[in-house]
Design goal:
This is BLOC-1-related complex subunit 6 C-terminal helix domain-containing protein. By secondary structure, the protein is mostly helical. 95% of the residues lie in helices and 0% in strands. 0% of the residues are buried.
Length: 114
């Protein structure tokens, strides 16, 4: 391409300079947007890590509560079995008392008849 005059040559240089300035401006804007995007992504990662920490802490607390509940239920079952065992002895004593009472009633009835 042949330049016809110095004025055309200078005009083309100005156009190229303007294009270079625009390209640099676009490059700065792209860098700014990229930096902002990176900051937002880092913030999101921090939030997600904190969220995971909360979830893990909640799970551990729930696990401890469940373990405590299971242990209490096991203790309650053991206590019920112990009470059941002790009640068996009381039932036996209760039956003996009833038998003695019946014998006393029979003896009293026999005494009245004689």
């Amino acid at each position: 391409m042949e330049v016809k005059s110095v004025e055309e040559y200078m005009e083309r240089i100005r156009v190229l300079d303007a294009l270079e300035q625009q390209a640099m401006g676009l490059s700065r804007m792209l860098t700014t947007y990229t930096d902002r995007l990176q900051e937002r992504l880092e913030q999101r990662v921090e939030i997600e890590v904190a969220s995971e920490d909360v979830v893990l802490s909640s799970i551990k607390s729930l696990e401890a509560a469940i373990d405590g509940s299971v242990e209490q239920k096991q203790q309650l079952i053991e206590k019920c079995q112990q009470l059941n065992s002790e009640m068996q002895g009381l039932q036996s004593i209760s039956q003996r008392v009833q038998e003695i009472k019946q014998l006393l009633d029979v003896m009293e009835y026999a005494k009245r008849k004689s």
